[in-house]
Amino acid sequence: MLNMETRKHILEIHNLEIGYHISKRIHNSLVSNINLTASEGELIAVIGKNGVGKSTLLRNIAGLQNSIQGDILLNKKNIIGYSRADFARLVSFVSTEIVNINNLRVFDLVALGRFPHTNWFGKLETKDLKSVSKALEMVGMKSFVNKNINEISDGERQRVMIARTLAQDTPVIVLDEPTAFLDLPNKYEIVHLLNNLSKTENKTIIFSTHDLNIAIQETDKIWLMLNDSIIEGAPEDLILNETFNQIFDNSKLSFDRVKGDFRMKRKYTEKIGLFGEGIYYTWTKKALERMNFTVEKGNDSIEHVVVEQNNEIVIWKLIDTNEILEFNSIYNLSNHLKNGRNP
Predict the structure, then answer these.
(1) DSSP state for residue 262 in the 8-state scheme
(2) What fold characterizes domain 9-251?
(3) Is 131 exposed, middle or buried (0-12, 13-18, 19+ CB in 10 A)?
(4) pLDDT at position 5, please?
(5) In whole angstroms, how large is the CA radius of gyration of the chain?
């Protein structure tokens, strides 16, 4: 049985303990004995409950906070051995805080990423201007170059922050909850953008998120932070070995390995049959299960629902021994099942 990785490990974490230093001898430990790896061109999501230490771990990797003990190796060298200038050419960081500075243009913010590559005066040369322009183009923000940072949306601002890291041109990019303040479409767009950048630019991108569904769909690896440990693996491996069920202590919540999502555990009180096919069958089944029915496919010996499709017209028929009722939507069917049968 082969157990080998073909991509180079750009980041290695050995026996790391993270937390907060209260004094030289006293510290508050969050997680210890952390052993993780990140390969070139890999997109990694850090998942875990609030307060478990996701931001602390990322800040340690980005060199912004000291660990309690252990080693973080970048290209086989401990990060504490790099000068600030050299480290800034290797790792860039995007904080969860929203940048809100008056009279700062999109171009100026992205250009700040070139600071490790400029001279003492910070003068931008032709190559720097090209890097800024390329970075904006890669995130789809080139037409916003002269806009004030306060005049763009949260999603656009997050793209600009990612462009700044691209202008900095580091092999490793660390982002603390880059989708925290975004609506659902922008969440998916940002993570999909990170996915593309990891593949096309061979960047190692590590980001924290609460959006498990997006992480499962888009990332190569997940670092799952529990109360006292961190487990790493491909999303599919963590699903198959039921690791995701360890995220929450809530006994009413479980991870559905087939659907790849968290679900509330339900106490099914009645049985109902269901006939149909395709997407209408699937979503009718979901609605019936939400109402605590055990759905039995193709069972017409009990009260049952038949989903009939005729071109673009869909009818839901509720059939029992006494009558046949027709509904033009799942909502109306659900209302009847919940309320219409009450004496």
Answers:
(1) E
(2) Rossmann fold (3.40.50)
(3) buried
(4) 58
(5) 26
How far is the C-alpha of 112 from the C-alpha of 92, rounded, in Å? 12
Fold of 270-340: Double Stranded RNA Binding Domain (3.30.160)
The CA distance from 262 to 253, in Å, is 7
Query: Angle at CA 249, nearest 5°, toward 245 and 252?
Result: 80
154-168 vs 184-200: helix crossing angle, rounded to 10: 20
What is the pLDDT, as a whole number, of residue 36? 97
Per-residue confidence (pLDDT) for residue 212, from 0 to 100: 86
Using a 10 angstrom Cβ sphere, with 0-12 exposed, 13-18 middle and 19 or more buried, the burial of residue 123 is: exposed
Dihedral through CA 261, CA 266, CA 268, CA 271, nearest 10?
A: -20
- Confidence (pLDDT) at 260: 73
Tokens representing residue 102 in the block: 């008056």
In this prediction, residue 50 carries a pLDDT of 86
Q: Which pTM value belongs to this model? A: 0.83
Q: What is the mean pLDDT of the chain?
A: 88
CA distance 178 to 281: 36
- In the chain the first and final C-alpha atoms are separated, in Å, by 63
Task: Read off φ and ψ for residue 267, nearest 5 degrees.
Answer: -100, 105
Amino acid letter at 227? Answer: N
Q: Give the Cα separation of 225 and 198 in Å (integer).
A: 22
Q: Give the whole-angstrom CA distance, residue 10 versus residue 50.
A: 28
Amino acid 257: pLDDT: 78
Q: Are 278 and 287 in contact (CB under 8 A)?
A: no
For residue 3, the model assigns a pLDDT of 54
Task: Please tell me the distance from the alpha carbon of residue 276 to that of residue 316, in angstroms, as a whole number.
Answer: 10
Give the start-to-end residue ranges of the domains of the chain.
Answer: 9-251, 270-340
- Cα separation, 10 vs 62, whole angstroms: 14
| Residues in the chain, pLDDT under 70 | 1-6, 120-122, 248-251, 340-343
What is the distance between the alpha carbons of residues 36 and 314, in angstroms, rounded to a whole number?
51
